[in-house]
Structures are given as structure tokens and as C-alpha cells.
Amino acid sequence: MAAANAKFIVLIGFFIAVEASLLPHSDKITHLPGQPQVQFQQFSGYLTVDEKKEKSLFYYFVEAEVDPHSKPLVLWLNGGPGCSSIGVGAFSENGPFRPNGQVLLRNEYSWNREANMLYLDTPIGVGFSYSTGSSAYETVNDEITAKDNLVFLQHWFLKFPQYRNSNLFITGESYAGHYVPQLAKLMIQLNNKKTIFNLKGIALGNPLLEFTTDYNSRAEYFWSHGLISDTTYNLFTSGCNYSRYVSEYYRDSVSFICSRIMSEVNRESSRFVDKYDVTLDVCIPSVLSQSKIISPKQNSERIDVCVEDEVTKYLNRRDVQKALHARLIGVRRWDVCSNILDYDMLNLEIPTISIVGSLIKEGIPVLIYSGDQDSVIPLTGSRTLVHGLAKKLGLNTTVPYRVWFEGHQVGGWTQVYGNVLSFATIRGASHEAPFSQPERSFVLFKSFLESRPLPQEF
């Protein structure tokens, strides 16, 4: 009898522990080291997405500054594949703070001014996300990532049920051009059985949508911006284009001609030009960027070009990790992009533009935007893909190509098809647009959430 009672007590303790793990207050951040005083709440922690493989994804959630329960919920995903949404998105781009030495500075154009922002480190092995079994890091692919992200969202709503009925938007950049549409597709499939997600739209910044078109637009961008010569441009388009080089690289079969041409491209374009923003100075200590993986062997307001170094130092602090309820499992230090994840890089070649089309058919509004100083996934490729998709879907132009404004300056250009598919550029912005053009990116974001046209005049 005593043994039975003891077993019952253990079971009760287990269920209490599980229930407690689903309570948001267990993940509440009381104060981040060096943080200024703020009125909004922050949460961070882990949610298990695979009990068998003990896979846990790490998130950082920032409530809206004012009246959060009336504001939409926005999930943000960074790309890579293998780069941290917390380190890049939250602490370098559109989150409330940016590290500067020992302190955090407020980001005046944080997206939590308009929405509740949820940042997810995905897949496992990225940022603070982990699995206790190292085999879980081997050959992770798009399909696995999408399923894990779906399970994460389902579990997250159990922890934060007050946001279940909020308007939900999924946003991201770069390789999130794969992550976001694939996740949204699974959400729609689930909703067709039983409505779970109140999905209202997706927004993709400088996204990889179609391997050949996106990658081969790089040569013209390099040439038109003076990064390569006429001779090298001709070789880069006829002798070996960029999609062929990347395809060969990830098959360990780089041909002599591609090797020779890429060496010349790299020599002329220089490693001291940031390919993610060809007009921006580089951080000399670390010429790095969140999308270094999709580009093998590539590396007006004052912009801190060394913010990545600042973020790395900050998130490696023990007191910061404790405040975030984060831990390092299987690695000795936090890195912007994972060194332990073995992603199936041939997934780069899987087009997702058709999935975007299927979402539009389901009535989900889509915004594709481009920082116009990015040569990694240039605006020309994205614009071509959007126009082609609109034509395929039979969508008429509802807003002809025009400028849009932020304040008294041109913020970029935009075109809208059928009031459901939009393309926009952000003038002067990099691959990580909210990092280099925070105010213009914020105007674009706010218009997207409100389903309003971008400002036509100042």
C-alpha cells in the first residue's frame, strides 16, 4: 500500500511538473543584463518537439509595447539554414534591444511597437535549440524542420492560450523562403481538418524561392554595381553561372571551369565588400553574415557593422543565458550560425515559389520584399519570380509599379497583384533589411499588418 501511495505521489509530481512547464510565468524574463526599463513583458525558454529524440526548440517572445492582447502575433524565422532568429532577428534586426558593450540599447523601430514578436531558433542545433542525441543533427532537411516548427507552434499555444485567436503572421528572410511557406502549408492542411491557426499572411525578405532564378540574378547584380568586369560577367553567365557552382559545391564536384571563374569573381568583388549590402562597410574583425552558408566561401544612419560580434559576446555571457533560461547543450559557446547542424544543402534546389502560389489560392496574403543593396538574393530575381507567379495565377496588377515613402524620402518601390500578392523593395537596405534600414522596414511591416497600401506621398 505504501509503495502504491509513493508511486501515486511520483505521478502527481510528474503531472504538476508538466503542467508547470506549460505555464508562461515559468519562462518569464525578469530583466536582461544591461537592459533599460521597459513596460512590456518578455519570455524565453524551451519547448520539446520530439520526446523520443529529446529535441527542444528555444524561443524568445516579446509582447507588444501597448495592449498586447489586441495586437497580432508575428513569428519570425531567420535562415542560413542554421542561423539564429534570436541572435540575428531579435538582437540585430527588429527586436526591442541591440547589444552595445555591456548594455542593451533600445531599438526605436522595434517591431513589437505593432505586434507580439515570437522568435524561434530552428532547426535543432541552432542557437540555443538542442537535442541530447547527436544523431538528430545529422541530415536535417526542410521536411523535418517544417514538422518540428509546426509542433512547436502547437505547443506554444498551449503555453500561451491567450494568443490562440490572435491574427497570426509568419515572417522571415533568406532561407526562411523555404521555412515559412513550408510551415504555412502544414498549418493550412491542419486547419482544413480543424481550425487551429488564425493565419492572416506571410512576409518574406530577400527569400530563396527558386534556386536557379534567385542565384543566377547575382551575376547581373555584381556587374551592374561595378563589382566585376565585363569579361568576368560574360564568364559568370556563360562559362559557369552561380547556380551551377553552388550545385557542384554541395555535391563535392566543383569543376575546373567553375573554380576558375569563381576565383576571379571573388578576386574582383573583394572579401572586403559585404555581399549582403554592397554599399555597407564591413566589420574588419569578423567579415561574417547570417547567410554565409547559402553562399559557400563568400563572405544614411550610422549602422553598427560589428553588431554580430556584439551579439555573440552578449549571448555568450553566463548571466545573459541565465536570464534567458537558456543553456548550451553539445556546444561550448553560442554562435550566430550552427557548427553542429548537418543540413541537407541540396534542399536549396527545391523550389518553394509553387508553395507560395498554393497559399495565395487558399486566400493567404503574401508580401515578398527585397533590400535593394543585397547581391546574395537580389531584388531582380525576386521581382521576376513574383511577376511570373502572378501571371500563372491570373492575378491582375492592382497597384502599378510605383515608389512608396517613409517620411519625406522614397522608401522603395512596390507593385501589387490581385490585392493578395505584393512585391516591394526597401531602398538602401541589405539582405537583413531591418538591420540596415530599420525605419523603412518598420513602415513596410506596419502597412503589411494593417493590409494598407504603402504610403504614396509624404
If you had to describe this structure to a student in words, what would you say it looks like?
The protein has 458 residues and is of the alpha/beta class. The protein has a domain at 9-211 and 347-449: Alpha/Beta hydrolase fold, catalytic domain (Rossmann fold, 3-Layer(aba) Sandwich), CATH 3.40.50. The protein is 36% helix and 19% strand. The protein has 14 helices and 15 strands. It has helices at residues 2-21, 85-94, 142-159, 176-193, 211-224, 230-239, 242-249, 256-269, 307-315, 318-323, 353-361, 379-393, 433-436, 438-449; strands spanning 42-50, 55-62, 73-77, 97-100, 103-106, 116-121, 130-131, 138-140, 168-173, 199-205, 342-343, 366-371, 397-406, 409-417, 421-426. The strands form three sheets. Strands 1, 2, 3, 6, 7, 9, 10, 12, 13, 14 and 15 form an eleven-stranded mixed sheet that branches. It has a two-stranded antiparallel ribbon with strand order 4-5. Strand 9 (168-173), helix 4 (176-193) and strand 10 form a beta-alpha-beta unit. Helix 3 crosses helix 4. The protein starts with a helix and ends in a 9-residue tail after the last helix. Mean pLDDT is 92; it is low at 8-20 and 287-292.
Describe the SSE topology.
Blueprint: H1 2-21, E1 42-50, E2 55-62, E3 73-77, H2 85-94, E4 97-100, E5 103-106, E6 116-121, E7 130-131, E8 138-140, H3 142-159, E9 168-173, H4 176-193, E10 199-205, H5 211-224, H6 230-239, H7 242-249, H8 256-269, H9 307-315, H10 318-323, E11 342-343, H11 353-361, E12 366-371, H12 379-393, E13 397-406, E14 409-417, E15 421-426, H13 433-436, H14 438-449
Parallel strand pairs: 3-6, 3-9, 8-11, 9-10, 10-12, 12-15
Antiparallel strand pairs: 1-2, 2-6, 2-7, 4-5, 13-14, 14-15
Helix pairs in contact: 2-9, 3-4, 4-11, 5-6, 5-12, 6-8, 11-12
